Amino acid sequence: MPTKQSDNPIAPVGDSVVRLDARAKVTGSAIFADDFQFGPNLLHARVVRSPHPMALIKKVDTSEAESMPGVKGIVTGKDFDGMLGLYLTDRYILCRDRVRYVGDAVAVVAAETVEIAEEAVKKVKVEYEVLPPVLDPEEGIKPSATVVHPDLGNYAYPNFIFPEAGTNIANRFKVRKGDVDDGFKKCAAIVERKYRVPHIQHVPIEPHVSVAKWDEDGHITLWTSSQSPFAQRNLIAKALHVSQGSVEVIAPYVGGGFGAKAGVSMESLAVVVASKTKGRPVKLVLTREEEFHAAFCRQGLVAFYKMGCDKDGNLIAVDNQYYWDAGAYTEYGVNITRASGYSSTGPYRVPNVRVDSLCVYTNHPVGGPMRGFGMPEIHVGLEQCMDDLAHEIKMDPYEFRKKNCVKEGDIIVTGMKMHPTGLSKCIDEVAKAIDWGKKEPATAPNKRRGKGMAIMWKAPAMPPNAGSSAEVKFNEDGTVDVAIGGQELGQGTFTVMAQMVASALGIPYEWVRISTPIDTKFSPYEWQTVASRLTWSMGNAVRLAALDARKQIIDLVSKAWNEDPNNLDIRNGVVVSYKTEETLPLKDTVIYGIPKENYNGWMGGPVVGRGSFMPTYVTGLDKDTGQGERAVVHYTTGCQAVDLEVDIETGKLDIIKAVSAFDVGKAINPDMVRGQMEGGFVMGMSTGYFEAMRLKGGVMQNPSFVDYRIATSSDIPQKIESIIVEVAQDDGPWGARGIGEHSMVPTVPAIGNAIFDAIGIRVGDPPFSAEKVYLAMMDAGIVK
Amino acid sequence: MSYHRITLTVNGTKEQVDVPSNMTLLRMIREKLALTGTKNGCAAGECGACTVLMNGEPVNSCMVLAAECDGANIVTVEGLAKDHQLDPIQETMMSSGGVQCGFCTPGILVTARALLDRNPNPSENEIREALVGNLCRCTGYIRIIDAVKKASHAEAR
Amino acid sequence: MNNSHPALPEFEYMKPASLADASKFLAEHPTDARPFMGGTDTFVRMRDGLLPMHTMVDVKVLEGMNQIKFDSATGLTIGAAVCMNKVASHPDIRKYYPLLSQAAETVASYQLRSRATICGNICNASPAGDMIGACITMGGLLTVHGVNGFRKESLTTFFLGPGKTVLKPGDIVTSISFPLLPAKSAGKYRKLGRNTLSDLSIVGVTVFAYADAKAASGYKFKLALASVAPVTFVPVKAEEILSGKAINADSLEEAAQAAMDAVTPIDDVRGSARYRKYMVRNLVKETVTEVWKQLTK
Predict the structure, then answer these.
(1) Which of A143, A170, A174 is nearest to A155 (CA)?
(2) C-alpha span between A235 and A294 (Å, rounded)
(3) How far apart are CA B87 and CA B77, in angstroms?
(4) Coil, strand, or helix at residue B153?
(5) Which of A325, A637, A659, C133, by CA, is between 20 and 30 Å from A236?
(6) Residue A432 has pLDDT above 50, yes or no
């Protein structure tokens, strides 16, 4: 009787197996989008971009550029009248009558070499009539502001987005719950703060790259570094007024996404210029400078917080306003407004809530999905305010959070009932690991030491009907190829899916391959690789596909052996009967079936398992109150704390220890879950220390690594600890839910709270640069 | 723009390539030799994704002209394994979880290999210092540093 | 709006056979040819469209460019093409000119230091140049080859402004030499960047000091400050205080304050003038104290 290889009955689910793409990546053989070989036919594209944040286009003259030898195609906005948009359709592929941010695409040139394309770009003459730009969301909502999208009233949008025609408000999410004014009267302490969170960028180490080919028969192929092959196919096909079936998106390994490569940002530019090159493929690679400001960035936020509690520390009322500096196009960003609205209180139980979350058009770079999708931005202020409120009533911030954090059964901000969650456990684990309450001595006379914590929650932000599907198909030797539409960005999707298939089917992990690159022609549909949804959503689909295959096999063998299928199992790639101890390896059977007795015919045939998952229970929310039965599928919650020192001579921060705990439901691969916690912490820390897109007059002043600094190996904490908490997700595969984004959500306020503990003051808005910390200390009289 | 005929050794193999004056070593490796393991991240010497060994020392290949490389000995990530046997640093990078998206990985491996060659038993600080020119956005560096430590222990045996 | 090229713009690469050939060519093409060594500054500026050049002249293998020579009678000579990693690790430099090695180690990353050179750092003449302070305080002297042959250039008169030096078309720096240092000397380069390592300096403080019986304090201090003025800045008053008075907590504070009062930094993307002035004060005090402790050990 074949025995299990480990003590883990659901192995390899729950095991920290080595990722299945590791070898390809360490040998340099893993293919990324810029690595595909296209031969001498390949053309190179460069983009004519607006130098103005807001201007009308009076004239575009491409004649001189077109006559250059080596130029094979130029397209402008007049060639394409279709619009793009994931949620709100507000964007032409190329600007037609106006430009709305510095970097907005006006024309694309394809040429034999990138140098010729660059020269041709310089020769495209564009006449602009400059208009006063909107550079701040508080200014943008005033009647005097330039209207960035005069046609807002004509754009298509889904029924959960509420654009206000004639204004710069692309979406508004309102929460009206209970009675905040009455609530504040009952408060013993009230905290009111304003926080400004700057724009930042994802900074994937791999810049955006797309290669497009437009065949004479109308078939369009797009090879691209992409989190969203199906969404890109859909949006581009719609914008070009063609069938989704005639656009094929091929997506290999992604060198970092973080949201930058979701939706459509630059991919459509390669596609449209390919329409002119008679079937020759065209490659567009963004320079690092373009990457910083011309694709997607994370929108800026101006946030007003007001919250109050009673003398015992019970949260009574929250009244927050979020003004999102959403940039020139909000087709994706409108949903950040919504998500930050329905999660606007943070992971707390509050009976009275008034929130307005506004998505404001500005002439800034395009705000798109970035890891956290509004959560890191709002938690900057939320979690520092919660600490301030706790201090007001002389309560330990840890106790304050334990008291008020959401627990199972609580009615949360949208009226939804909170599902089982390990948030309290996360808080306790973190407090224990950081030795909360113990004042540690500074390590040197010029240092001040402090501890800070912050908690978070986030739900996958997506349409209520975002779906996943999967196929499991066999090879003759019993190994399996799993077809999925979700992408490997580094977060470990492929490995985790392979573990799930191996476990559900009963085959070794080593027998499972994931079919890559994703190809929308062959791969089954997946909405997008965003929202930390794949482990849960695509995991469900993959598990169902594996179980479907398993059932086909068991049903076949039970027929062949004339046994009750309940006595049969598949273990380690072998079908076993618990009753008779008969065995049959999967090999050959899964393709060729089983011969009947004496070879009098055959049974079965090639086994293909399929699975599909789409949540069915998300309800709408009332437009005026934000209330509804089920706003989201679920929340992942968690806590982080840091023990850090401030150098009072320079203002520099040094984290001695960082601790994270997140409730992931079930860690399919614990080491990889910890890897997400570590990576997310460092990314959050990087944004807390260094990162801001410095925008002056709409122009980014620091579009390069020289002056947009990110964390290096020399900046990370001395010690980092990552704790997994598991309170099962009722409809997650083996109870799992996502973790990819959550680990960078509480980081900045945890650092802010630790700084406060160390030196007794708040230093202002992030990033908490050494200069900001030092000058804050100087102004407060802490140093002279 | 004129072309220069250069002869150089890449991963142990002698190559002769005609390169235009302005072609970087990175572009030559990727476009003329189809060795796409080495990556383009910034073209400005800041991210380290393009790191290769040039005469034994790590350089940002995006900042070296191919034309300067006549007679040079170049090692890329593809040259770390010998006869399909992975270098210890490749093994430990896999087993430590130091790989996520994999885009910074080739540059990191080359930098780490050079570190261990010149300093077989580096301290944690020395490892952090040596890797400071290789940006990673995914892992937070923790398991990368761990992998280098483990490789140095493995090689000490 | 940014004008960066995806890679490098078009230009010609030229490898001259001799210094004479190189200087002649460069003098004949004063606006569209340029010498380069490591290229780490040059290529970045070219890619950003700031240095349109037709010909790049590779001077790395010309005579004298690759030497490291220490002579216990005359001092140290480093060829202009010697990379910073070599300077950081060379046993004679580490032993006899440790400030030079230590300053080299703070520059950028190991990869860039495989290519970057001291003389390139000097010729780039950035106010943030990390090596310039060490070279000035230790009396570095440049050997320059031009159309009229070899000459020497002192660093005290070399810099005219940000990115501007006394070099003329045809000039190629071939080496830098340092006199023998006094027997009892110590130095430190303290660099404050945004990241812990690898950044350009927000403020850079070089301190080099040695025992000097003629000085009232018994010691001569040489200071140089990066990123706080159009060129590397020597705070003379601070130096005088440290040479003229007994070194103690008060004179250290006074010197640090004098340095702070003397500098005229600007607000830029890396830091504000206000912060820079305080950092000059704090880091001069910290670094002088550290060097002082080393000297009096």
Answers:
(1) A170
(2) 19
(3) 10
(4) helix
(5) A325
(6) yes
Nearest-by-CA chain C residue for A52: C1
Tens digits of residue pLDDT in C158-183 = 999 999 999 999 999 999 999 999 98
E-strand ranges in A337-486 read 352-361, 447-458, 468-474, 480-484
The yes-or-no verdict on residue C255 having pLDDT over 50 is yes
Q: What b-and-e string marks burial along C150-172, b requiring 16 or more CB atoms within 10 Å of the CB? A: eeebebeebbeeebebebebbbb
CA dihedral A484, A489, A492, A497 (to 10 degrees): 0
A242 touching C, CB under 8 A? Answer: no
Q: What is the CATH number of the domain that holds A588?
A: 3.30.365.10
pLDDT at position B157, please? 76
Question: Average pLDDT, stretch C155-160?
Answer: 96
In chain A, which among 677-716 make CB contacts under 8 A with chain B? 678-683, 704-706, 710-714, 716
**CATH class for domain B3-79?**
alpha beta
C-alpha A172/C-alpha A359 separation (Å) is 6
Write the DSSP string, B53-100. EETTEEEEGGGSBGGGGTT-EEE-GGGTSBTTBPPHHHHHHHHTT--S
Mean pLDDT (whole number) for C207-228: 96
Q: Give the model's pLDDT for residue C2.
A: 57
* Same-domain pairing of A591 and A650: no
pLDDT at A633 over 50: yes
- Same-domain check for residues A219 and A106: yes
**How confident is the prediction for chain B on average, in pLDDT?**
97
The model carries a pTM of: 0.98
The predicted pLDDT at position C7 comes to: 82
Which residues of C sit within 8 Å Cβ distance of B?
Answer: 4, 6-13, 39-40, 43-44, 47, 56, 58, 60, 85, 108-112, 114-115, 195, 197-198
Residue with tokens 């205080």: C241
A671 with A764, same domain? yes
Residue A164 forms part of a structural domain: no
**Which of C85, C113, C114, C199 to substitute to test the interface with B, most B CBs within 10 Å?**
C114
> What's the gap in Å between the CA of B71 and the closest CA on chain A?
24
- Judge whether A262 and A527 are in contact, CB under 8 Å: no
Instruction: Please tell me whether residue A213 adopts helix, strand or coil conformation.
Output: strand
pLDDT tens string A653-710: 999 999 999 999 999 999 999 999 999 999 999 999 999 999 999 999 999 999 999 9
Whether A563 and A603 map to the same domain: the answer is yes
Of C4, C202, C286, the CB nearest to A287: C4
Q: How confident is the model at residue C297 (pLDDT cuts 50, 70, 90)?
A: confident
CB contact under 8 A, A702 and C269: yes
Average pLDDT, rounded, for chain C: 96
Q: What is the mean pLDDT of residues A34-62?
A: 98
Residue A167 lies in a domain: no
**Distance from B125 to chain C by nearest Cα, in Å?**
11
Name the residue with tokens 């210092």.
B129
Q: Does B44 touch chain C (CB under 8 A)?
A: yes
Q: Spell out which residues of chain C touch residue A774, defining contact as CB-CB under 8 Å.
A: 275, 278-279
pLDDT > 70 in chain C, percent: 99
Chains that touch A (3 or more CB pairs under 8 A): B, C
Q: Catalytic site residues of A?
A: 741
The CATH class given to the B88-156 domain equals mainly alpha
Residue A318 inside a domain? The answer is yes
Its domain, for residue A730, covers 297-462+620-779
Q: Percentage of chain B with pLDDT > 70?
A: 100
Q: Which of A118, A707, A712 sits opposite C197 (nearest CB)?
A: A712
Which residues on chain A are in Cβ contact (under 8 Å) with C196?
652, 712, 714-715
